[in-house]
Amino acid sequence: MNSSNHTELVHSIEGVVDALRAEGYVCGEQVGTAVYLAHHLNKPVLVEGPPGVGKTELAKTAAAMFKLPLIRLQCYEGLDEAKAIYEWKYGKQLLYTQVLKETLEDVLQGAKGLADSVRRLHEFGDIFFSEEFLEPRPLLKALREEQGCVLLIDEVDKSDQEFESLLLELLSDFQISIPEIGTVKARSVLPMVFLTSNNTREISDALKRRCLHLYIPFPDAHLENRIVEARVPEVLPSLRAQLVAFIQALRDLDLKKVPAISETIDWARTLLILHADRLDADLVRDTLSVVLKFQEDIETVSAEVPSLVRRALPDAD
Amino acid sequence: MENTLISFISALRNADVRVSPAETLDAFAATNLIGYGERDALKRALWLTLPKTSDEKERFDRCFDRFFNVDAIEHRFETNDESPSHACSSLGQLLQSDDSAGLSLAMAEAGQDANVSSIQIFTQKGLFTRRIMERMGLGDLNAEIAGLRDGSLADIELAQRLIEARDRLRGQIRDYVEREFLLHADHDGRRLREEVLRRVKLSNVDRRNFRHLKAMVLRMAKKLETLASQKRKVFRRGHLHVPRTLRSNMSYDGALFELEWKSKKINRPKVFAICDVSGSVASYARFMLLFLYSLEAVLPHVRAFAFSSHLGEVTGWFEEHDLEEAITRTLKTFSGGSTDYGQAFEDLHDLCLDEVDHRSTVIILGDARNNYGDARKNLLQTLYERAGRVIWLNPEPRASWFTGDAAMRAYLPYCHQARVCNSLEHLQRLMTDLVKLGR
Prior knowledge:
The complex is a heterodimer. By secondary structure, chain A is of the alpha/beta class. Helices cover 53% and strands 12% of the residues of chain A. Chain A has 15 helices and 9 strands. In chain A, the strands form 3 sheets. Chain A has a 5-stranded parallel sheet, sandwiched between helices. Chain A is elongated and about 95 Å long. The longest helix of chain B has 32 residues, at 153-184. A 6-stranded mixed sheet of chain B has the order 3-2-1-4-5-6, sandwiched between helices. The radius of gyration of chain B is 33 Å and the shape is elongated. The model of chain B is unreliable at 230-235 (pLDDT under 50). Chain B folds into 4 domains: 2-67; 90-184, no CATH class; 218-232 and 267-437, von Willebrand factor, type A domain (Rossmann fold), CATH 3.40.50.410; 234-266, no CATH class. The interface between A and B is large, with 39 and 34 residues.
């Protein structure tokens, strides 16, 4: 597997799923289809789903799988073009004007009249607004990447509406307009774009229209089992089944924040360190804070731990 | 196959999944890549390109399963081996051949011929069933059956079998038409009902339709919300806008002479909603309050007042309880008593005149029927002078504004705007204006 034959990886959907698994990302065919279509149609993918189901991880794994660099843009409120697309190197620009002022005398020497001076000034190249002084930010960097790259625009719902509009040009045409210079187009290889959203705010229709829309729900027991197996292979299969069953049961409870896959994995690692080989009520109660992030939730669950554990142990008694 | 996809997309639209032409093109590109060979793969590809919210995805699933229905016609033609006769008509041969797939295909083709996806109302089901049967060659088959009946014993036997097969086929075609109807027609009359409900006077709406109206209000509010929040500006005071500062100071040799700030203001209007909740206008107040408070995300500073004989603030209820409960409470508490606008304005002055300023929008909903009491228009005048806008919403048609005990003539000079407001459509227009003010 090297970068030159990565296209072979994606000749079929199964190929994509297998390749993702080889990188440690276990997913269903739906996710595979999304990556497959994104690659072949050159479409950005908008990934939605509850927190912690591996939305960001998908982009990272795709980058690893295609052996491409990952360029990440974390969105937050107030993110603007100066931080996402480009910025001018102001300090250097100011120095440049100073230098220019000093050379001005040489340039204008012997000029006859104002018109002549202006003409000479025009002939003298002006690089004030040029690529020299351009500081590329993630989006521009992604477009200029020669070999292509994976661009991850993380938590796009955290950004402002204006920023979404800024993205539209990039997502539909893979180009960015810089008023002082012109339009920057992507190199021959288009970047592969992933956007993630936690749905804290409705993403605009215009943005959704330009993307493939992938919704990743919490995995079912079987898939989650396989994910834990891939991520924490040292955990005994029997314990793995138990802890997955326990987590699946937790998700049915009325909690402030239900545990996500990342929490399952953390928990599996915790249990591994504690050398546990099966779940019991005390162990669960002691390690509950790994899985649940709110005191209220921990209190709610604590009372029910024994019955939940009993249900998670099908072979007990 | 292209027609099938287009037809599927129109079925999706009918099921309230919004599909734009751009997405249609994406779907085509995706299906070209995936192919139609495998149903699940096709479904996954379309699932990524067409529906864009989890709600739509759910509807997509249902629609897909119904549209790409895989139970082919179960068809078996029972023959006893002794009968050597064979049908001659094309449909007869098809029925006799035990070819389920062929029969399904013929049915689908005939369906497309008969334009079955244009079905609109359920009474057309029989018509389309008949048309499809005819396109499949019912005429010839019937003629053949009639001919066979006069023939030998074997012929009569065959005729009998053909009749049975034909009737079974009719049932299957009926099912097929039924599915098409559910996919393509406005089967529960929702669109028609919404069209009507938008226009009808709110006081005439039946109680049982409140539920639908509420859903519509919420949907409209949601739409307005996205419209408005797209225009929202971030408020940041005291941040230097470096690019703009440098650019504007080019002319001073790059010396930072004039500073540019990143200050953008959100100008969210304060809304004071004053509702007459006496019997005649109560149902308008209900929907206006519902609409107003559904827009909480864009209009966060809404204060609501209700009155008939005296006025009181109900904002607190809307903060504590859910919408429905708060509205019921409001109506119950204030709706008794005869309307007295003069008293209401006086109460309003005592309550909150100080808080009305040039950024406030005052909405008064009422018919101004003051039971010949003192209109106290000077009170409205003070309000008018302080507030940014005073909007009077009158549920009555303009022609009856000045008749009988209506005090509209006295109030009209002190309103920036007075409009008729008696349907959901009117309300929607008002809310759009309010939200636009916030930009």
